[in-house]
Amino acid sequence: MFKGLLLTKSDDGALHCALTDIDESRLPPGEVLVQVSHSTLNYKDGLAITGKAPVVRSYPMVPGIDFAGTVLESSDARYRAGDAVILNGWGVGETHWGGLAQKARVKADWLVPLPAGMAPSQAMGIGTAGYTAMLCVMALQQHGITSEQGPVLVTGANGGVGSTAIALLARAGFTVHASTGRLDETEHLKALGASEVIDRATLNAPGKPLQKERWAGAVDALGSHTLANVCASVKYGGVVAACGLAQGMDFPATVAPFILRGVTLAGIDSVMAPHARRTKAWERLARELPPETLAANTDTIALAEAPAMAAKLLAGQVRGRVVVDVNA
């Protein structure tokens, strides 16, 4: 038996979330059994736990789209008992039982090794949000964006993706502008590396198809009007890495930035990213994200506290990253 958060639905469609004892025999099939050490709360986890969006595809379900832990059993030659591993995405916590529990059984293809020198709690302080931020930074750099070309904008700056992206970009030598609706967090964002903080209200309403060229590139976690305005404000040849839809799934834009300024819109998917790209992202995170920056941007909670924290996350009341110690 092990403890985990279990989501169930009653006959009337009501969602229930409870911390309960689960028999190991109920775990779904997979080649690797993992003793989970830490998980985390992402925006998608908040949606799943609260039922605000149809993230979960079947019930009962253990939520949690990522985890770090130690291999207990493996029928795959790539992993042995005692190996430290990380999992992000692959539908875990949506279609396959996830990380907000003390054990998980998953496919070996879904795992990556925990980088040497990184603790499981640090890996989940980064989590899917931080890993996605690194994929965004990698995309900007792969498309040729350099610090000499001008500032880079990060939207949703107080969120998990945004806050990590700021730290990574600043560490790489970029001038970073941060967009947020919580201007009271300006000093925190500047401590992460932002040189300028702007009110998200300047970006989240309908705007002109082409606007003043302001940024060499951008990391956007919001979508909707914000993404449209960001694309309209990026310099000639600039790149926008789009990875989220916190404002909305719509994209009310025109082709003007793309055909008149040569702007590139790079879509970032963290769920199904190839193993080689995942491994590279985690290796870079281990090298490039200072532990002290990570610690200052992370809060740790017990598994029983996750449901209440999920509601706060969706309400925009959480700063940075939330690590869940599943054994606390």
Describe the structure.
This protein is an alpha/beta fold. The protein folds into two domains: 142 residues, Medium-chain alcohol dehydrogenases, catalytic domain (Quinone Oxidoreductase, Chain A, domain 1); 141 residues, Rossmann fold (3-Layer(aba) Sandwich). Helix 5 links the parallel strand 11 and strand 12. Helix 1 packs across helix 9. The chain is globular. The relative contact order is 0.16.
Summary?
With 328 residues, this protein is an alpha/beta fold. It has helices at 43-50, 120-142, 160-171, 186-192, 224-233, 256-260, 275-288, 291-296, 306-314; strands at residues 2-9, 15-22, 32-40, 66-74, 84-88, 103-106, 111-113, 152-154, 176-180, 194-199, 215-220, 234-242, 264-267, 298-302, 321-325. Strands 3, 4, 5, 6, 7, 14 and 15 form a seven-stranded mixed β-sheet that branches.
Key features of this structure:
single chain, 328 residues, alpha/beta, Quinone Oxidoreductase, Chain A, domain 1, Rossmann fold, 2 domains, six-stranded parallel beta sheet
CATH topology of the largest domain: Quinone Oxidoreductase, Chain A, domain 1
What's the CATH class label of the largest domain?
Alpha Beta
Number of strands: 15
Topology pattern, helix = H, strand = E: EEEHEEEEHEHEHEEHEHEHHEHE
Structural classification? alpha/beta
DSSP strand content: 25-35%
The outline comes out as globular
Rg for CA atoms? 20 Å
Low-pLDDT segments, ≥5 res: none
What's the CATH superfamily of the largest domain, by name? Answer: Medium-chain alcohol dehydrogenases, catalytic domain
Number of helices: 9
Mean pLDDT: 94
* Distance linking N and C termini: 16 Å
